[in-house]
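Why does residue order matter? Because the sequence determines the fold. Keep that principle in mind as you read this record.
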Amino acid sequence: MGGIPLQFSMKLGLSKTEDPLKVPYTDSEATTQISHRLHHYLSEPISSRDILIVCIGTDRSTGDSLGPLVGSRLRQLGFPQEYLFGTLDQPVHAMNLIEVLSNIRQQYQHPYIIAVDACLGQSSSVGHIQLGSGPVKPGAGVNKDLPPVGDIHLTGIVNVGGFMEYFVLQNTRLSIVFNMSEVIADAIFAAHQTHMRARSSVKRATFVTLD
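Structure:
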């Protein structure tokens, strides 16, 4: 949705321990790098929180379809449907974002949200995937006033920003967006699987100790 990570757009919420990860989707190690960093975030003390993925965007715009493509890929991989918001069939976009966030607050108690969105940037950054702490501000790149989303964010720089953003998003190459979405989805799925196995091991160890 032409989102902007808040720490880049408003200089807020930078991690005290490390800079955001930025890697081109064409890097052969991109999925591994993103997955490892995601697992690092998920390894922080959030064991009692549900992990939700909110993929923002619409399939009506090529550049803005990154989020829904990621969500649909996660569904195909077997990510739990009840913790996934935003797919090609059921996108989360400007018209329903506030409602979706309201429903999340009603259904989940203090969830940990990973936000996924497309964004525009400098020409040298097109094709890069960014992962960092703090929320993304959906629609900021196309002058929409929407609430921030996420404890951490994954954004894909799909095209060049700064001029005629709606036109740019409409005329973004599907190949870049699609390939980027596969890298992001595969990294999220791998990190989530690793995290859930670790969480189960901790629970089993706790039960053994109590016995």
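The first helix runs from residue 6 to 9.
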